[in-house]
TrEMBL record:
Gene3D superfamilies: 3.30.1240.10, HAD superfamily/HAD-like. InterPro entries: Cof, HAD-like_sf, HAD-SF_hydro_IIB, HAD_sf. Keywords: Hydrolase. The keyword RNA-binding does not apply. Signal peptide: none annotated. This is Cof-type HAD-IIB family hydrolase. CDD domains: HAD_Pase. PANTHER family: HAD SUPERFAMILY HYDROLASE-LIKE, TYPE 3, PHOSPHOSERINE PHOSPHATASE.
C-alpha cells in the first residue's frame, strides 16, 4: 500500500456544507482503516470539537487540532504548544488596536471578548452533541486573569470580524513581528500560533510517530491553514471548492466537499491501490 496516512481537514473538506460527514465518506474511511491506512483529522478547530467528529468516524483517529498546536491520539497527548502569557498580551493588544473581537482557545474551550461569532459557529452543534463534546464558551473582560490562570492551556488566538480591511491590517502587523504563525481558516478570521506551529509541522510529527515517510502521506484541505500540510505530504490534495492559493500548490484536485471529495481521494489512492 503506497499511502499509509491520510490527513484531512474538516470544514470545507471532510464536512459538507451542512457540517456532516456523508455515509459514503464514512464507509470509505472505514474501508481504508481496515486496509491498514491511518486516518487523521487535521483542523483549526479545538480538540473537543474535532474529537466529536473523530468519534463519528468509528475508528481510532489521531487528531491534530488548533492548526497543529495540539496533537492527540486517544488519551495520549503527542504534542502541545501553548502561547504563553507575554505572547497572549501582545496579540491581545494588537486585536484591541484594530477593534477586533479577541478569542483565545484551549483544547476544550474558548475565551471570547464577545460570544456573537463563536455562538454562531458552535451553538448549533452544542445543542445536539453529548455533554462530553460540548464547547465551553466564556465571555471575558479581564484578560490578564485568564492568561494567568490558563497559561499552560491557551494554544492559539483568533481574530474574527466582518471588516476584511481591519483583519488584513492586523494580520499583517502580527506577521511582521516574525514570531508567530498566522493563517486564516475562513475569510472572516485569522489565527495566531507560536512560530513553527502549523498543520504541516504536526503532520510531520505524526509521520515520525508512526514511523512512516512523507511520501506515504496524503493531505487534503481547502484553505490557507492547509497549505503547509499539502506542501509537506507526498500527495497534497486540494478540494475543488478550495481557495486558489491551495489549488496552486496541490498536486491533485478532488471534487467538492458537497460531492464527497475526500471519499473519491480514498477510493482512488488507497482502496484502488494495488501496490
Amino acid at each position: 500500500m503506497k499511502y499509509k496516512l491520510l490527513c484531512t481537514d474538516m470544514d470545507g473538506t471532510l464536512l459538507d456544507n451542512d457540517k456532516m460527514v456523508s455515509e459514503g465518506t464514512l464507509d470509505a474511511i472505514k474501508k481504508a482503516h481496515n486496509k491498514g491506512a491511518k486516518i487523521a483529522i487535521t483542523t483549526g478547530r479545538i480538540f473537543t470539537s474535532a474529537r466529536y467528529y473523530g468519534h463519528l468516524l468509528g475508528i481510532k483517529a489521531p487528531i491534530i487540532a488548533s492548526n497543529g498546536a495540539y496533537i492527540r491520539e486517544g488519551d495520549n497527548v503527542i504534542y502541545k504548544c501553548v502561547l504563553g502569557i507575554n505572547n497572549c498580551m501582545e496579540i491581545l493588544n494588537i486585536f484591541k488596536k484594530y477593534n477586533l473581537v479577541p478569542h483565545f482557545y484551549t483544547a476544550n474551550g474558548i475565551f471570547a471578548g464577545d460570544t456573537k461569532y463563536t455562538s454562531r459557529f458552535y451553538a448549533k452543534s452544542n445543542q445536539v452533541v453529548p455533554d462530553e463534546f460540548k464547547i465551553n464558551i466564556k465571555k471575558v473582560s479581564q484578560w490578564k486573569d485568564i492568561f494567568d490562570n490558563y497559561e499552560e492551556e491557551i494554544l492559539k488566538a483568533v481574530a474574527i470580524d466582518d471588516d476584511f480591511e481591519k483583519l488584513k491590517k492586523a494580520k499583517d502587523e502580527i506577521r511582521s513581528l516574525g514570531k508567530y504563525e498566522v493563517v486564516s481558516s475562513f475569510s472572516n478570521n485569522f489565527e495566531v500560533m507560536n512560530k513553527n506551529v502549523s498543520k504541516g509541522r504536526a503532520v510531520e510529527m505524526l509521520t515520525k510517530h508512526f514511523n512512516i515517510s512523507k511520501d506515504e502521506v496524503i493531505a487534503i484541505g481547502d484553505s490557507e491553514n492547509d497549505l503547509s500540510m499539502i506542501s509537506y505530504a507526498g500527495l497534497g490534495v486540494a478540494m475543488k471548492n478550495g481557495e486558489d492559493l491551495v489549488k496552486n500548490v496541490a498536486s491533485y484536485i478532488t471534487d467538492t466537499n458537497d460531492n464527497e471529495g475526500v471519499k473519491k481521494v480514498i477510493e482512488k489512492f488507497i482502496l484502488e491501490d494495488v501496490n
